[in-house]
Design brief:
The chain has helices at residues 2-24, 26-35, 75-78; strands spanning 82-93, 100-112, 117-128, 131-133, 136-138, 141-153, 159-173, 178-195, 198-209, 228-240. The chain has three helices and ten strands, in the order H-H-H-E-E-E-E-E-E-E-E-E-E. With 241 residues, the chain is an alpha+beta fold. The strands form two sheets. An eight-stranded antiparallel beta barrel has the order 1-2-3-6-7-8-9-10.
């Protein structure tokens, strides 16, 4: 037994050195940490406040709005009807191929009938001057008329059209007599506004009557009446108030 006890102190010292070496060895420390029970992971605390809303996207840059401009008044308010006076001059034909210088005047009133239209009444009168045709004298003729007049603008354009129609009576003076007749007239013109109060136009008017060029009237049963027509083409100017 004595030899065993002699080596016992050496064995204990070797064991102590081995244990000390394991306690300072990194591999041993990792092993111990792996074997030791790990603490349960702590759950992150639930935030009590709502997460902040994402910042709104930057609005696209726009140009500054234009200053407010009041809309233009409606045409009804601008026009609103009114009086008119016109003067026309051009050529007329009572007989085929016989041209006579002609002038006319007109006046009346139109009421607004929509954004682009006016309707009204007119009085007019005119003269076809005497002339000479192949050695024959052609007498002067005068007329006066009453009727309706309508004007239509082509949208916002300054261009417009007028139509007119009504009753007329006329006289043609001969050297020894006067020929009188009456009937109806109808006309069409195209024009352009220079401004609110002034325009120019070119128009055609037909005068239709049913009298024969004879001493007897068409009312006499012995005579059949043919319809005759006189025409005028005139350039006109008009002032509106």
């Amino acid at each position: 037994m004595k030899p065993l006890f002699r080596y016992l102190p050496l064995a204990l010292a070797a064991f102590a050195l081995h244990a000390q070496a394991q306690s300072v060895s990194p591999a041993y420390e990792a092993f111990r940490n792996k074997e030791a029970p790990q603490p349960a992971p702590t759950q992150a605390a639930t935030p009590t406040t709502q997460p902040a809303a994402p910042a709104p996207a930057a609005a696209p840059a726009y140009a500054a709005p234009a200053p407010y401009v009041a809309p233009a008044p409606a045409r009804e308010a601008e026009e609103n009807g009114g009086f008119f006076v016109g003067l026309q001059a051009g050529q007329g034909w009572i007989y085929e191929d016989v041209e006579q210088d002609t002038v006319a005047v007109s006046a009346g009133y139109r009421w607004q009938a929509g954004p682009w239209a006016q309707v009204g009444v007119e009085l007019s009168g005119g003269r076809l001057d005497s002339t000479n045709y192949r050695g024959y004298d052609v007498s002067k003729a005068t007329y006066k008329a009453v009727g309706a007049n309508a004007r239509m603008n082509f949208g916002d354009s300054p261009w417009f059209a007028t139509v007119r129609g009504g009753y007329f009576d006329a006289e043609q003076e001969y050297s020894d007599s006067t020929f009188s007749t009456d009937g109806g007239y109808a006309g069409l013109a195209i024009g352009v506004d220079i401004n609110r109060h002034f325009n120019v136009s070119l128009g055609y008017t037909a005068f239709v009557y049913a009298d024969e060029y004879a001493d007897e009237d068409c009312d006499d049963y012995d005579y059949d009446c043919d319809f005759n027509r006189a025409d005028t083409v005139m350039l006109g100017i008009e002032a509106r108030f």
